[in-house]
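Exercise 7. Given the components listed, write out the predicted structure of the assembled complex. Treat all entries as one system.
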Amino acid sequence: MTGELIDFGGLETRPAQTWGALRLVPLVRRDPIEDLRLHAKVYGDEASLVLLPDRTLYTAYVPHAFVASWTGDGTPAAAYGTQLGQPLRHVPVRVRRRMARRVEPGRLRFLPLHLALEGFLALHFGGPEIAWQEWSRQAVAHGLSPRAEDAYTGAEVRGLDDALKVFEIYPGQCGLLLYAGDTLASAFVVPHPEDYRALHPTLIRDLYGELIYEYALYHPARDFPAVIDESAVTSPADLRAEAERHEREWAGFHDSVMAAGLLRAPARVEQVYRMGRFTLSRFLPSFERKSENHLGETITDGEGRLAYLKTFRLSEAQSRRGHLLSALAAHGWSLPATAATLRIGVPMLAARLERAGFGQLLRQDVMDAFRKQLNERTRRTRRGGAASPPA
Amino acid sequence: METYADLIECEDVLLFANAAITSTGQREFHSAAGEQRLSLAFLHDYIHGNYPDLYAATLALDINDHNAALIIANLLKRGAGLPGAGDARLIAWRLARMSPPRVYRLFQELRRAGVNNRRTRAIIRDWLAARPDLAFDAVKYRSALKSAVRHAHLRPEGELGDFLFAPFRRARYEAPLLEAWRRAHYDKNALYELPYTVAEGFAARHGISRAVFLERVAPRLTKLERLRLTGAAERDGVRTEADLAAMPLVRLASYVLSLAPDVRARRRAELVAALRAAAARAAGARAGTWGDVAAVLDDSFSSFGSPVKRRRPLAVALACHYLLRALAGSYRGLWLSGRSDPLQARPTGPTPLGRRIIDALEGRPSLLVIVSDGWDNAPPGLAGEVLRVWRRKLDPAGEVGIVHLNPVYDAEQIEVRRLATVVPTAGIRDAEDLPALVELARFAEGRTGLAELRAYLEDRAARR
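Answer.
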């Protein structure tokens, strides 16, 4: 399934605030969505175990889980909302029963980034569907477990704590785009400004990719200072018009250039659950190399407008891994077919799999044979006096 | 004849004056306490090293007590016999205006640093001699006074020496306060004759309930203790009868902002009357003489200040609002959030300074005062551009006087943050200084030079 564009309708971009390497771009909603409200339950810093439907244990850092409270008849829902909807069966449920019991029944709890990150890792978690002989027994039987990806908490990203602390929240603000070294680190949108105010401090507990962690160390962000063309001004009214023009230009530039990578249609969207007029789904990028790859989750309303959004930016290495996995999956986990599509030899594909950290998926003897082939071919080329292949 | 060096000197001194007015070495919204102290210490060293004579003269300006104490400590460390040693009179004058606990803290710092030259001892001796009631100090600031007396090699006369160094040698004291202190050790009734801070300790020792204690100690409270305890005492059913209108303007504004919105609404008449009265007192004879004034006042989130300086920048803005209303013939105050009721001011939202300045300039006032920490972020730099274009294009003759007052010292830039080069920026601490600051801002505009600045400083110093 290919997805449609993420619809930012109803959200307006306001001037960014910078701090160190970070640029924070507020998104403001003129008409907040009243019948969908989110609430954060901060469970503490310890890693928690989440039981997935397929009964595989999945270890990750889950700083907070969210509770969606929602009314179907359109009446405003407070953050401690009215009852509706059934607890979701196929969304991860916390193992900690005592904590879970404290939450009122009838509200959907979901783990924000978990859902999407799990989607990425479990992309083809079942492992090879056809037991081609190259795949190791472990890969066929257990898939890619343990499914873990590296991510940093916001507290580890340099300057993020101060940046969030000194950020001045706009009236009506419902979202925030966070840039590190002017690359989009994460996007966060909620339905209602009050939700945003409650959740703003929790951004420090979110997960960020290693790319963001590193960019925050090195690249300082500069303000886009307002510039007024003196010659165009003859009255205070002109001054005001110029100021407004600048604001429009900034919003236009931001939406069309800076956030372009996010606004592009995601490669695949999976609907996880439906509640009244709202749909919870997660999306995966195309895993194109050398481009922005965001995965995330959304809640959209009946018209497809965005009510909730949370994204995670993949690093280059993570994109590469996703690329390999999706290529393999597209060809039923057949090594020769995949290698042909990628226009490389099978031994080369095996080497790439190994470099990406999936080496243990192939049978040891097969892997050794591929390695030998690769070495011999290189040696033969060299002995013939030809130059070594271009890197 | 102005030289380049003169210009730099003029700028440096103004920069230092601004820093010394605003920074208290405490945490601010954008910088930690350590950063503030480091930045301020550098500035002090720089000015002290380059302009030793002017460094002392800045004591005559309305700089805050924290910086005054730093300057005095630096001057005394240098010792006598060097240029600028004729500043003893200025030091004595400044010490007399500082709060006693701060002076005692300065003396203790000098003791820790091992500064014990003849000049230092003389200054301590003279300051102690000028105290109205040393027995009171001996009770209230016991250990501090003891340390100062030791450090200055003084021999207190009569029973005071005994009181400090061997308090139980005497069976009774002649001075009533000292005698009360002795009796308070075993007599519950005697402690109500002592200052509040000392009595509090004895009350805890005797196990007196808070409500009873507050009720009986109320007449002994100082003006500020009264204000500070108002809320806590009312919970216990005791009214401290704080006289709001007698408070300094910014202090009163801080108090008002510390109240919950519904309390402010309920006590509106009382609070507004107190603010107006304090503003009228600060304006004095100048009330109503400033003509058409507009103000852009910052109530963005950054005006919260920090947990140690709660809502200080906002309190300064609120105080300026009432003072300017008293000073001006016709006045228009514009809050950044668009709020029209200053009594309900709350630090929230971004800082769209540029747009509000356009709003204010459209009315063509004779004076525009901007009270803000200068973190213009919605969009960044618009305020500077608006002011620049206004001065260049729309008002080249300068009919509209514009002054930016900044209550926050920016540690990173080592000065108060500016909005534009064409508009003078001055640090502000107490709203009462506003008229003097608008005066001082003249120098920053570059129209008046170093000679005038020196004359101004010397004049201020001589008047002290």
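Discussion: Chain B touches chain A through 30 residues (CB under 8 Å). Residues 4-22 of chain B form the longest helix (19 residues).
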